[in-house]
Request: fold
Amino acid sequence: MTPLVIGKVEFDLIKARVDRVAQAVAAETNETIAYSVGTMIETPRACLRAGELAKTAEFFSFGTNDLTQTCLALSRDDAGSFLVNM
Reply:
């Protein structure tokens, strides 16, 4: 699972909920399913807080298109029409 978050507190709340649901399902079905909980890094704030997020998140997924749009105000889809090859 990869929720989009901007800080550790937010991620920890979501991860705790996912873990509770996984435990409830395991208790009800008598089966344990392996899973990991990470987060999408799609905002500049999440990038700056990645060190804190890494204490709890089991993996990161980077949304490079969203990061480009929020940091540079450029869409990857549109930029090719006006940016020269660098």
In short: DSSP finds five helices and two strands in the chain. The two ends are 36 Å apart (CA to CA).
